[in-house]
Amino acid sequence: MIAVNERLPYLRDKTSKLTNRPGCYIMKNSDGKIIYIGKAKNLHNRVSSYFRKDFDHLPKVARMVSNVYDYDFIITDSEFEALVLECSLIKQYKPKYNILLKDDKGYSYIKITNEEYPRLQCALQKYEDGAQYIGPYTSSYAVKQAVIEANRVFALPTCTKKFPQEFKKHRPCLNYHIKRCMGLCLGGVSAEDYRGIISEAVDYIRNGSESSVEELTKQMLEASENLDFERAAKLRDRINAIAKASESQKIIDEDRRDCDVIAAALLGGNACISVVMYRGGRLFDKASFFLGQEDDAPSLREEFIIQYYSSRDYIPKDIFVDVEFEEADRVNLTDYLKSLCSHPVNLQNPKRSSAARLLELSSSNASEYLSIKVGRSGREITALDELARAIGLSKPPRFIECYDISNLGSVNVVAGMVVFENGRPNKKLYRKFTIKTVSGQDDYACMQEVLTRRFQRYLDGDESFSVMPDLIFLDGGKGHVNAVAPILSEMGIDVPLYGLVKDSKHRTRAIATGGGEIGLSKRSAGFSLITQIQDEVHRYAISFQRQKRTKAAYQLEITKVKGIGPAKAKLLLTRFKTKTALKSATPQELSECAKISEQKAIELYEFIKEI
To answer: Has residue 533 got a pLDDT over 70?
Structure first.
């Protein structure tokens, strides 16, 4: 529970006199320490939003507000000047509630092991082990990719065998047969020749593919002139492998060879941002930043871009981001970036082309890094992100509720409500409903009754219905959505509402809106999630319906005992709930519950034992 700030009356009074001009505001705690710095195009409107009565702040903002003792402000001539000032102040004071970038980098090395037949490996630190180390490099990701590529191009062994001790002791592995390894275990390569190949691989890493190809081509021609065609053929294959490896890295267009690709992943209030860097048409580097509790997706990216590039030596001309900025914010950001690097910067959110595919890669990196931090799978995070994008949510939903009606004819009509929290079922929040006000088969009316009862319990403060969902699904099409939407609106419940549509084979097909459908790729993680949700709510509702049928049949069976009518049978099943519990009841308990004589209770007891 976040404590209420006792200084709020003073802060509101101070803010009521604040100017409407742009500038920066500086929040301080009771010790006078700066805890948050922000910018605003209208200081009065922005600062007053923190201190309004009954304002529903996001968790991180609420914690910050609870610690504000006083604030200061600096007026500027424009919002752009406020942005520049904000960045400068954040770098100077590093306030607790601003983004403080800590990436996943450490120093990394390329290691050439000290063996008769050396290996090419990644290393996180140097040891006094006689090995040769190249580095340090700031990106472990870049080192890893370089080692993988060099081992593949030069067909170096990556197994755990010891050479030359294990020459000819085992059959060559799969890598040899698919030409990923030279087959050193066969014992056909001398230590001198092998060290020459290792030297070429190191040169390839240090100088790039172009110079390596030139040198290898020269060696190939010399081998041909000396009639050493076997060596010339090996060098030719190596040149082709380098060309293939280089080609596979060229995933962006020639006119967009240098760019940064920025994407965020959010789950349960936690956020991570990944920056994938391309230089010269190749994936050059990657950095991921865990930002902790963050909620406001657009401002999250804006704050990140400001702080990240203010400390970078190089800013590319193209920066792709996974959100669309407001035009004024985009202009301010690009002007600020231009002031740092002295060349125009193109900041955009591509929807198609190769740039959009690069965003997917960056998003996957962010999801995987966040999954490590929060103990969830990267696919779960990706699924929620894809779902949010498909239906236009500003951030992935934490709580998703889904409803389904189940009936057999017009009797025993029930509904099930399942809840998925951060992409996983939370069975503690599942709820069952028996339809009370609808007679006959009317799915729309039943769905209206269930949603009305669920949110009325929420409005009444019922603890068992205290969680407000971020997204609601109904098992049905646009008719169900149109039937329920007015009910929620009348109750003041503002939660995105959609249907889940099935095909003729009763499989999930699409997301239904009030006027149409939204399709998702059947191979996507988002589609798998909505399929799982729809299957789960159907299972839950139909299992409850079967329980009701079984209970009704058992209730009818009990009425065969003379003196036990439907009312008394209902009393017994309401008290004991299950067949097992009823069979465990004593004659005295049966007598007290059904208000029957002791003799009749004994007869009932004997009857129950037999059925």
So the answer is: yes
Looking at the chain, the domain(s) classified CATH 3.30.420.340 span 399-542
- Say how many C-beta atoms besides its own lie within 10 A of residue 550's C-beta: 13
Residues of the chain with CATH 3.40.1440.10: 8-93
The single-letter DSSP state of residue 323 is S
Residue found by looking up tokens 């209770």 in the block:
601
Q: Is 457 exposed, middle or buried (0-12, 13-18, 19+ CB in 10 A)?
A: middle
Q: What is the pLDDT of residues 294-305, one digit of tens each?
A: 655 657 888 889
Q: What is the CATH number of domain 559-610?
A: 1.10.150.20
Residue 439 has pLDDT above 50, yes or no: yes
Tokens 């600062």, located at residue: 47
Over the chain, what is the mean pLDDT? 83
Among 286, 248, 282, smallest CA distance to 153 is for 248
Task: Please give the CATH topology (third level) of the domain spanning 254-375.
Answer: Nucleotidyltransferase; domain 5 (3.30.420)
E-strand ranges in 47-154 read: 70-75, 108-112, 120-123, 132-137
> Backbone phi, then psi, for 488, in 5-degree steps?
-65, -40
Beta strands in 355-410 (DSSP E): 399-408
Q: For residues 180 and 578, which has the higher predicted lDDT (pLDDT)?
A: 180
Give 107-144 pLDDT, tens digit per residue: 678 899 999 999 989 887 778 888 988 766 656 666 77
φ/ψ of residue 405, rounded to 5:
-100, 135
pTM of the model: 0.56
Is residue 481 within 8 Å of residue 409, measured between CB atoms? no
The fold of 399-542 is Nucleotidyltransferase; domain 5 (3.30.420)
**CA-closest candidate to residue 403, choices 526, 545, 528, 540:** 540
C-alpha to C-alpha distance for 579 and 584, rounded to whole angstroms: 9
Average pLDDT (330-355) is 88
Helix (H) or strand (E) holding 319: strand 318-321
Helix (H) or strand (E) holding 413: strand 411-421
Q: What is the pLDDT of residues 264-292, one digit of tens each?
A: 888 877 888 988 888 766 666 778 888 77
330 three-state secondary structure = helix
CA distance 520 to 386: 9
Q: Is the dihedral of CA 231, 234, 240, 242 positive or negative?
A: negative
